[in-house]
Specification:
alpha/beta; Glucose Oxidase, domain 1; 2 domains; 14 strands; about 15% strand
Length: about 625
């Protein structure tokens, strides 16, 4: 199947726009010699690097002729998604040793859970934790001991942060190894209904906790299709993990077999292997576009309209929301997972999974089949599902020809919608994104008075006081990267959903973020420019008429220009400095806007010290 002409045109537009940055990035990769970096360490350097290793490992590391894998782990045993990683390093080391190679844990990265910090002060650290993870990844790889890398991470900011950090060492190959989703518990719909009843004062806290505990009940990733599980599908689309690895449950023979196979593949593609595949060459314009297409085709998390902009910049590639919007126009919606439907990721996997999605999109010319991956000759080899035979040996079979559950997964010919799940809206208020995958056509347009908020919890207080209009648009401002670190605002969604269920017309406009699990209510999010940086959002008054039309792509404050010019912008209310927030003041001050990835770190290829070339030059080794 030939490539869709608009897909080709959009990709070419990105390639041309990115050419200078991309070339600088590729030049930096090319400057690093392709050999065992530890050969250039002094004897003292090298001795430090293997001092704690077993004798056989020391001998191999001293010889420098066998690959050494660097493991970057987000393990902690508090978070269900990362708890399964506890035993992975031992399994990877054993597998590598049996193959004549070695493996070391290069370092760990923080892994915070937005599900725990939702609505709390700690959420103001969440977005910038991505950049901390990127830095921690780079620090972990700074010892020049490694010939290939393995990444153990799953959740919201962890995978984008690891990928950004890994791309700063783009000469090294990289394989991402997931932990898999927990088995299905109480349905997401049942949980959401209890949340909405609790937000309306109709359910007790004990009832709410029982529902939450029945949903989040075991090791593994949460089963709704939020940012964590979107991460996994984007990595699959980019070919940075083994085919079909994303949604295999923890603690199963298939999960272990995939981890062993990922280890062996990381060895084969290492700088010392026979099939060298550096990460920085794999993550090109085609890979980034493939990731966005799969995000749109599956109705994935809105957070990736920020994260994958940042990931692309880390590889010298410049994308923006116009690219995402234009790709959405040609991408059919093939999947309905909660919050965009009734199913969880386990049901999606059973219906056919990511292999089915990739095959359908490839056949429709909506993915770059020639994009290089960590496995096989092309992305076509990722349109498969893994399984183990009776002897525990790993195999792959072609993705099923038809979905076994058309309520969850459909072919391109029978798509749920002809267009993808995200839309760009713009007008005098600025530019924002709307997730429409979970919205009925009649819910995609509203004109209503503004209810102006500076705190997400204020909406519940006003509801309890009975001061909310029948229909309204909640305008929540000073929630952008510069104002307070752009926390997710998931605490708003149960109440808005409850009001919508009553037949009221409601919507949200904000310069903040929503959870990847959100989408039931019409919401224009990530509004740029944000209120704290001169956005018109700071001039909205209570009762102003606002038009939000996701189908037409319009977001407009319907107040005449003369009146707006006479208004003084509201000043940002004082922010908190407790529980770690003061440590991120520098990040808030220098953060880019959401459309530029909300980055608080520099990814400019020219922003390097004068010693950068010297650091890449081989020195006399031991």
């Amino acid at each position: 199947m030939s490539i869709h002409p608009r897909l080709h045109a959009i990709t070419e537009r990105i390639r041309q726009r990115s050419a200078p940055r991309r070339q600088s990035y590729l030049d930096a990769i090319a400057a690093v010699p392709r050999d065992a970096a530890r050969r250039h360490l002094s004897c003292g350097n090298l001795a430090h690097g293997f001092a704690a290793s077993a004798a056989e490992t020391k001998a191999r590391l001293q010889g420098g002729a066998t690959p050494n894998l660097g493991i970057i782990s987000a393990y902690n045993d508090m978070l269900s998604a990362h708890q399964p990683f506890e035993g992975y390093p031992a399994l990877i080391r054993t597998t590598a040793n049996a193959a004549g190679a070695t493996a070391q844990v290069a370092g760990g990265v923080p892994a915070m859970c937005d599900g725990i910090t939702q609505g709390r002060a700690g959420m103001e650290l969440s977005l910038f934790s991505r950049d901390v993870i990127a830095q921690a990844t780079a620090v972990s790889l700074s010892h020049a001991m490694f010939d290939s890398t393995v990444y153990l991470g799953v959740c919201d900011k962890i995978v984008p942060g690891m990928l950004i950090g890994a791309l700063s060492f783009g000469h090294l190959p990289a394989v991402f190894v997931p932990a898999g989703p927990m088995p299905s518990g109480i349905s997401n719909q049942a949980k959401a209904k209890v949340r909405e009843r609790y937000a309306a004062g109709q359910a007790s806290k004990a009832e709410l906790l029982a529902a939450e505990a029945a949903s989040y009940h075991a090791p593994g990733t949460c089963t709704f299709y939020g940012t964590a599980n979107s991460n996994q599908l984007l990595l699959e689309a980019m070919g940075l993990m083994l085919p079909g690895a994303a949604f295999v449950n923890p603690g199963t023979p298939l999960r272990e077999a995939l981890t062993r196979a990922a280890t062996l593949r990381a060895i084969e593609i290492s700088t010392l292997g026979q099939d060298y595949r550096p990460l920085g060459l794999l993550v090109d314009e085609r890979a980034i576009v493939n990731a966005i297409i799969v995000l749109l085709a599956t109705g994935g998390s809105t957070n990736h309209s920020i994260h994958w902009v940042a990931v692309a910049r880390a590889a010298g590639i410049v994308i923006d929301w116009d690219d995402i919007h234009d790709l959405s126009e040609i991408t059919p919606l093939l999947v309905r997972m909660y919050p965009n439907g009734d199913a969880d990721v386990n049901r999606f996997e059973t219906a056919g999974g990511i292999g089915f999605v990739i095959r359908e999109l490839l056949d429709a010319g909506l993915l770059h089949a020639d994009a290089r991956t960590v496995f096989g000759a092309s992305l076509r080899e990722h349109a498969r599902k893994p399984y183990v035979d009776d002897g525990g040996r790993l195999h792959w079979a072609d993705a099923p020809a038809a979905s076994s559950d058309r309520d969850v997964l459909r072919s391109v010919a029978e798509a749920f919608e002809p267009h993808g799940g995200l839309r760009l809206v713009q007008g005098n208020l600025g530019r924002a994104l709307v997730k429409i995958a979970a919205l009925k056509p009649e819910q995609r347009r509203i004109r209503a008075p503004a209810v102006v908020l500076h705190d997400q919890h204020e909406l519940a207080r006003r509801h309890s006081a009975g001061t909310l209009p029948q229909d309204f648009i909640a305008v929540l401002r000073f929630q952008g990267p510069h104002a307070n670190g752009m926390p997710e605002l998931h605490s708003l969604t149960p109440l808005l959903g409850h009001l919508q269920n009553q037949g009221r017309r409601v919507a949200l406009v904000t310069d903040g973020r929503l959870s990847g699990a959100s989408g039931k209510t019409l919401s224009a999010i990530h509004l740029t420019p944000e209120a704290a940086r001169g956005g018109l959002l700071a001039k909205v008054h209570e009762g102003d008429s606002v038009l939000l039309d996701a189908e037409a792509g319009v977001l407009s404050l319907e107040v005449d220009a003369a009146t707006l010019a006479a208004r003084a912008p509201v000043q940002r209310p004082p922010g908190g400095c407790d529980v770690g927030r003061r440590l991120f003041g520098h990040s808030r001050a220098q953060a880019l806007d959401a459309e530029h990835g909300a980055l608080s770190i520099s990814l400019d290829p020219d922003d390097c010290s004068s010693d950068a070339d010297a650091l890449r030059t081989p020195a006399q080794g031991c």
